[in-house]
Amino acid sequence: MKGKVICLVIVLTLGLSLLILPGFAMDKKDIVIGVIGPMSLSDAASGISMRDGVELGIDEINKSGKLVGINLKMVVVDDEGNPTKSISGNRRLVYNEKAIAVIGSVASSCTLANMQVTQEAGIPQITSISSSPAVTQKGNKWIFRTQITDATRARNLVNTALDVLEKKRIAILYISSDYGIDATKILVDLLDQKGYPPVAVESFNEGDRDFLSQLIKIKEKDPDTLILWSLYEPGALITKQVAQMGLDVQIMGSGGLTHPKYVELAGEAANGVIVTLTYHPTSKEPHIRNFTEKFQEKYGKIPDHYNAQAYDAVMIIGAALEKVGADDPLKLRDAIASTKNFKGISGTISFDDKGDSEREEMIIQIRNLKYEVF
Amino acid sequence: MLIVRNLKCSYGRIQALTGIDFNVNQGDIVTLIGNNGAGKSTTLNAICGIAPKVSGEVVFRKRRIEKLSSDKIISLGICQVPEGRRIFPFLTVEENLLMGAYLRKYDKKVEKDKEMIYNFFPVLKKMKKKFGGELSGGEQQMLSIGRGLMANPDLLLFDEPSLGLAPFLVKEIFEIIKEINSSGTTILLVEQNARLALQIATKGYVMEKGRIVLQGAGKELLTNKEVRKIYLGEN
Amino acid sequence: MIFFEQIISGLVVGSIYSLLGLGFTMIFACTKRINFCHGELMALGGFVGLVFIEIFPSCLFLSFVVGPLTIGLIAVIIERLFLRRLQEDKPLKIVIATIGLSVVLSVVMQIIWGAHPKTYPNFISEKPFSFIGVKIIPQNLFIFLISISLMIILQYFFLYTKTGRALRALSQDRYAARLMGIKVGQNISLVYFISGILAGIAGMLITPIYFVSSSIGSFLGLKAFIAAVIGGLGSVPGTIAGGFFLGIVESLSSGFISSKYKSGISLLFLVLVLLFSPKGLLSIFHKVNLLKWRKSKNEKY
Q: What is the ipTM of this complex?
């Protein structure tokens, strides 16, 4: 009889604990971090880089247990690089998934479109890839970015060319789109200020395949450096044609030239090209090495700067949540905005009043078809 | 040589031929006369295999040809000199002639036929390097006939050869037709100029609204009261 | 010297425009229709060339034969399956159908080969050499020579062979051509086959220098079409001249004015030609066109 009672007690306790334990787990509230970006079509690679970075960051935060009572959860929406889909996708994240913060998107046009949704709803958003200056010039206080702006990149390139490489005769070849025109204005101003006005400024149209005319003109001016502000495809074509022509210049490039397809397309001609990046996997600093190793362990590939910038974005959100909790988006936003000297993987990040974080980058040179620290 | 039985033909819903019968004997000049839209050209096209939706029987040398494709029919020896001459404007005179012999193997025989045509039409020889489009109307008609002859046909179909030509040229063309006939080619002639056509024809058929309404020897029809009134413009 | 270098770079681009434009011209001449998926066939040529070069890495020549032939066959299949049914219909239908097909083709290419552009190594060395003081890039010379030889072969084919003559006849008067015993359907397929081969070769030629992507077809196709219209759509020598003309105009205008206006200037020429010589630049020298040849309205056949 006694044995039976003990048995019953044990069974009851077990049963109760089974009922209660998940209750304890549920005590940790699921908080959604939205990720929006192209997961398919032509920009998919960039979107997936962003997603992987965020995913790793969320894992780390959840494991660290720093957020009391909060379990971060990632919800990914594919906008296919299409601004209209980006808007509806962001609505879904904000209103259906109740995201506390959003990371994305990739194309500046998408971010410019979808950040209106988070602004309306009063939810902070960080873009880790969009680089157009316009993103932070709309007076939208809910948008931040861990990506380097084109203005910062232009400054870093000019500084590298003049101060580090000690070049003097700089030519510029840029794509006639918002991306190239805005940046070229900054480049020319900076070069003028520094006393080395560009010797040639030439442009090309989107879709152009033949750049010999421009290059012949540039060659006439005998430059020692060519700053290429371009997307990766025309960038690779130009790099090849520069080599074919026997034009002897140091090519330096915008973000387009850091695209993994760039080296593949340009081949041998890409060797020697200099770019600037926020992150490089060979970096020896302990917290960066730690990230590189963990990323490699989880995804089986070497991370790139897109991974790093996305990781930093989610870590900044994590730090802010730690400070103010997940109850008030406005408080969260203010906490993000007050980020100062955050030791990120992609550099030391401090947001200015627009939400940008201007910072120095690493100088990277392509050697043997690989991006290496200069 | 050519027997047509109950030939019907339609373009879409429009019945252009409502069942016609006629014969062409070896060595004859047979003419189909009638007003615009009577179905004369359609008859020729149906024989040549380029009219859509043909039914009935067309027998050429004891062979049914109404279902054959145009290239087969041409190979059998039927060729058309089309209305409006239809020479190739940007092919030279010589190339136009060679197009006539498209289905034949280009050999000495073709060369000989070409020389024969140049002898027959000396004006073409003179202009052989010129484009077809540069020729005058009469010259184009000669070229068109020459091109038809290059196929080496036994039965040559003429569609309105006098159309748009000056009167003295019309006479010349009809002389040429007679000459071709006398050298052994059978001729089926469609013509609005009924008087001229009936004068050279051994046999004539009068068509009206897709039917044959009258037939007889050429001379006979010339004296027929109806024909004189309607087609020859006499009272 | 810079002037000559610009002219040479224009000639190379122009030879590609000409090669592609010839496809538009031949199809237009024979069917009075414009095949707007021609550019996509070129892109397909680049991708298929890529596949064959991987299959036969040691024998470039073989890829250059098999690749374009494949594209020729694909062009024939497209013509037989889709376009033939519309051939007798209103021209607008064919225009819309081929534009639709071009979208389908480019999506299919994107699905098979991805959205990123692809390339393969140059056929010959990249080192430029000097010829009377003018720098010449071997790869570009190669492209130019191949294109020129193809144009000469094509011109010979049209002028002096029986089939070529028949195609010209067909283009001038389809009804009369049928009366001569020319099989219209078969010959139109032949024209699509030839234009497909040219597009295939163009695609393979441009891949190492311009890269091939699913979007390059519509871009180069449009340029080639403009070139053909400027030179004279439907005329083989006109189209060749138009291609080189457009290439040189583009090169000189980006060399001496600004590349920003490059497309604008070529479109300006297009408008001028359409206004003052709608049959193309070359028709000014072509006396037969001045005869105002009246085309018969009997198009039924």
A: 0.91
